[in-house]
Design brief:
By secondary structure, this protein is an alpha/beta fold. The chain has one domain: 3-Layer(aba) Sandwich (Rossmann fold). The chain is built from eight helices and five strands; from the N terminus they run βαβααβααβααβα. Bound molecules: thymidine-5'-phosphate. The site of thymidine-5'-phosphate (TMP) has 11 residues, from α4.
Length: 200
Amino acid sequence: MPRGRFVVFEGIDACGKSTQARRVAAQRAARFAFEPGDSPLGAQLRRWLLDASAPMTPVTEALMMLADRSHHVATVIEPSLAAGTHVMADRFYASTLAYQGYGRGVDLADLQAATELAIGTCRPDLTILIDIDIDTANERRTRNAEDRFESADVQFHERVREGYLIMAKSDPNHWFVVDGRTTPEEVAAAIDARLDALDW
Ligand code: TMP
């Protein structure tokens, strides 16, 4: 049984990655997965992680994201890939490097080491970054009921975006950057062309 392919969709909030990940999963008979929260334990962790009324340190936040990821890899992602099912994931470890590392300032080398512990040998075959600027993200976002991350300042989101672009640039074989300011149809066409070009 050939192993399934693992594609991750990344980007700042409101970039459109969830829409695209769900669409590709439906069209290619793949498992749609997401972080944080894609398991019964993960759903509990997600509630705590997004609750802006309960402050936590950046390291605590990172470790809780990694707890969710470790459990997600073990119970959802690896079993799917091993069974030959492709997985389309809305966020994976680059989110922690971007948000808790570049965004919150947690040491990147420490985060990398903790990530290794959480995910073992599980790596995406391709990470698709849907890049949008902060003004576009703010225009798209609904202003009511902001969570811990949506309520962070503009500079935080700028650092997160910049972190993603640095990671994508440093590993072009495993990253594909799409301009997310165009229409969803244009974003979809760019993603489909890239996936079609892979010999999977
Ligand atoms: P979502 O809006 O894509 O469901 O993600 C919820 C929030 O969690 C989003 O603002 C990004 C944040 N996040 C991190 O800060 N680090 C992580 O590792 C992950 C997976 C998400």
